[in-house]
Amino acid sequence: MTHQVPTSRHFDAAYYRKYYENPRTRITDDAGSAALADFIFSYLRYLEVPISRVLDIGCGTGLWREQVRRHHPAAQYVGVEKSAYACRKYGWEQGSLATYRSAEPHDLVICSDVLQYLNQAEAGKAIRNLSKLTRAAVYLKVLTTEDWENNCDRTVTDRQVYLRRASWYRKRLHKDFLVCGGGLLLKKDAPAVLYELEYLA
To answer: Do residues 139 and 133 touch, judged by C-beta distance below 8 A?
Structure first.
């Protein structure tokens, strides 16, 4: 099974049924979401990063909203989605990571499975925008060429994406972020202290 460069993606009802609602083909389940959220929020708590504003950009059906409420019930959660269908169904704000603006930065920005749907120019712009949107941390998940070749289950992974090597992302993220593992990025000027081997240079 080979991947396909996306042409025109509308992220309609069929897309959400396949990747979010169908138990056989969905991207994650409640247990997986909870385990990941436990890690992310526990590590941010360890780093003493306060969480009062969370931006979930490319939020889909809102899998992260319940996890934010579970760990930080008083935090403001903002869901942004490019799909007009999802915005109508779930009540999200419509927008794109490449161009979205916020009046003030968020403590945590969640960006899960978004960048692989953007062409190279859009993806570069989106990565630069991540730094403007967050005050402290980003959770980033993106399918790379290496993941397609070695790591993902192709039977349940969307093939219509732009695949780029992990080094392409690392080069662009390095300017503003420290890579802490598990998809967690810490902004270099964040109000947190990391020992030298707690992140990858």
So the answer is: no
Q: In this prediction, what percent of the chain has a pLDDT beyond 90?
A: 76
Average pLDDT over residues 3-30: 71
Region of 59 on the Ramachandran plot (φ > 0 left; ψ -120 to 50 alpha; else beta): alpha
CA 54 vs. chain centroid, Å, equals 12
Distance, in Å, from the CA atom of 187 to the CA atom of 137, rounded to the nearest integer, reads: 6
Residues in a beta bridge with 109: 55, 138
Q: Give the position of tokens 């526990």.
A: 42
pLDDT of residue 201: 73
CB distance 105 to 133 below 8 Å: yes
Q: Which two tokens stand for residue 12?
A: 């309609």
| pLDDT band at 90; cut points 50, 70, 90 | very high
pLDDT at 101: 97
Domains and CATH numbers, the chain: 28-198 (3.40.50.150)
**DSSP three-state, residue 22:** coil
- Is there a contact between 110 and 56 (Cβ–Cβ < 8 Å)? yes
Q: Give the residue-averaged pLDDT of 47-68.
A: 95
In angstroms, the CA 94 to CA 86 distance is: 9
Q: Which two tokens stand for residue 73?
A: 């019930």
Q: What are phi and psi for residue 94, nearest 5 degrees? A: -90, 135
Show the 3-state SS of 53-73.
EEEEECCCCCHHHHHHHHHCC
